[in-house]
Design brief:
Rossmann fold, 12 helices, 43% helix, 16% strand, 8 strands, single chain, alpha/beta
């Protein structure tokens, strides 16, 4: 009998020791610094109107997690899931729609869509998921040429654009608030850069145009009962500012959840406690995770 017990217990101890020594690649935390499982987080995400995944653009784990969440939202929400991303500009929506519907071949889409350099590894799987499940994927960002116009001449410079051009941005005038934390910090930071002192405000306004436009196209393509899952650099949704701030100005009743990505050495806790206030879920990733570029 004793030999029989040992036969069971010893392998079990070996397994437990192996589990204890496993290296974790990521861990989710709440704003209170408590660990939360992926499953518990997903229960909340499935009930949200809008979900923001604040990625680090070159972090492989960010992109893997974006896709995993998307797959689970497809399973839970079906046709009531809409996806969209900062990485696609609004004037490219027709091309995305044509590609997802099968009217345009991948070759022509890839050639004409002004894709980010890491598209094939990081964003193509999300488009494929949308295509395979007949879901909408929204190009939410303002065309970069218009952000550049603001960077050079402020919001006033947009007034000279054609009505056609204005379709690809948030409605004018842009109600910019320089006291919003992310813009205030950007203005302060840029004012100390050589040669940027007088243009610091315009740089922040350029970012605000992007945020306002992304909020505009999210609301335009969301209806009650749906979940809009949005991918963006963490800057655009951290601290519930950026895109989130613009959404709240237009629809304060929206149930919005945010995820931010943090790289650190140890995943037992959030290393920098100031990161805890950045989002509803803090996605901590081993700092040695492979970069996609």
């Amino acid at each position: 009998m004793k030999k029989h017990i040992n036969f069971i217990v010893i392998p079990l101890l070996i397994i437990l020791m192996a589990m204890k020594s496993d290296k974790a690649a990521y861990q989710y935390f709440t704003p209170k610094g408590k660990k939360i499982s992926y499953g518990k987080m997903m229960k909340q995400i499935k009930e949200a109107d809008v979900v923001f995944f604040g990625e680090l653009h070159n972090n492989a784990m960010s992109h893997w997690m974006e896709l995993e969440i998307a797959k689970d939202l497809v399973a839970a929400k079906g046709e009531n899931l809409v996806m969209g991303a900062e990485m696609f500009e609004a004037d490219g929506q027709l091309l995305i729609d044509e590609y997802l519907s099968g009217k345009v071949k991948k070759k022509y889409y890839d050639d004409q869509a002004r894709l980010w350099p890491n598209y094939k590894t990081d964003y193509a799987p999300l488009l494929k998921l949308a295509k395979d499940n007949k879901l909408k994927f929204i190009a939410t960002n303002v065309p970069r040429r218009y952000a550049a116009i603001v960077n050079g001449g402020g919001f006033e410079a947009l007034n000279d654009l054609s009505d056609e051009a204005k379709k690809y941005m948030a409605p004018l005038p842009i109600k910019y608030d320089a006291t919003v934390g992310c813009y205030k910090k950007m203005e302060a930071m840029m004012s100390h850069m050589p040669g940027a002192k007088h243009g610091a405000s315009n740089i922040a306004k350029s970012q605000a145009l992007k945020d306002a436009t992304m909020a505009h196209f999210i609301l335009k393509n969301w209806t009650k009962g749906q979940t809009f899952y949005h991918f963006n650099g963490s800057y655009h949704s951290d601290d519930h500012e950026g895109i989130v701030w613009w959404l709240k100005q237009q629809n304060p009743k929206l149930k919005i959840l945010t995820i931010t990505t943090v790289e650190q050495e140890n995943l037992d806790s959030v290393a920098d406690t100031t990161d805890l206030s950045r989002a509803d879920f803090i996605f901590t990733v081993d700092e040695d995770i492979t970069k996609t570029y």
